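Bug report (template v2)

What were you trying to do?
Predict the complex of my protein with zinc ion.

What happened?
Run completed; filing so the output is reviewed.

Input:
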Amino acid sequence: MSFKNVLGHSRPISLLQRAIENEKVVNSYLFLGNEGIGKKVVALEFAKALNCLNEEAARGEACDHCASCKKIDHILHPDVLLVEPIGQGIKKEQVIQMQRELVYKPYEGKRRVCILTAADRMAHDIPNTLLKTLEEPPLHTVIILLANNSRFILPTILSRCQPIRFHPLPISLVSKWLMEGKGLNETEAHLLASLSDGSPGKALEIREEISQIPREALLKDWVGSKSLSFQKMGGWVEALPSQRENLLLILEVAKTLLRDLVMVKTLKKETKLIHSDLWQVMESLSAHWSLSSLLKRMEILHHTSLAIRGNANTSLALEAMMLSWAEG
Ligand SMILES: [Zn+2]
């Protein structure tokens, strides 16, 4: 694999390639973007391009065949350090260990590259010397911090790095990759891509969970049900997972089900559906609904999701949502 095989992210990649070509590689970078979007893949390709033994690397593309490229591909290069969180985040000892290694010159590579994969999840007691290291890393060293969210990074760290943003990939691109690269069928690929927030890693991560969600029952008996009795509402509140992350995923699926109902109601085009396998159920359900009631339900669902994301009590939020649904 080399830069040209990376899925999407042409802008960050061309920025990095130009830096190599123009010999303007800076000491510290901060790659920002959703979990699983491809930041680590790009960081490793950058490390390869910086260290490739082949001449073409001067143009910012690794050859993929030389000893250096192969070692980095297998995370076996002594000058490429990958620091990944242990447990909840990066620990103080890991940063100290990294700094110890930086004292030496690169063993065999042209540049030492340190990749810290969860810079927004570093322990609070991270030594101040990290700031110094970021500002003036030892000669021939490039430090790359990866983070989902800059909100959780100390401003003193932010100001010392060149930020590079990784935007969500288009749904169509993630979907194509899932089909061609991972062998998924079109329906599953499109569904996972639609729920992935533009992140191939997330699409794969939620695959199993999504396969266990009873989408048809959710649609018929809950999301698209016109007559939710109090008893049924209570049943759903109990049946839905209490774990916040799992519940949020189900609510995301519920949103896409409602969105499909709206599509069927307005466009009547099967090809546009996320849940294309449920087309027939959608069509018969949508007949009972007015467009405005569906949109209202979507809005309520959206606000419930936001509240739960913002740490509201999950069962209370769900109960309130069901009551508003019943009124509408
Ligand atoms: Zn190479």
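What did the reviewer find?
The longest strand covers residues 141-147. Residues 188 and 269 are 19 Å apart (CA to CA).
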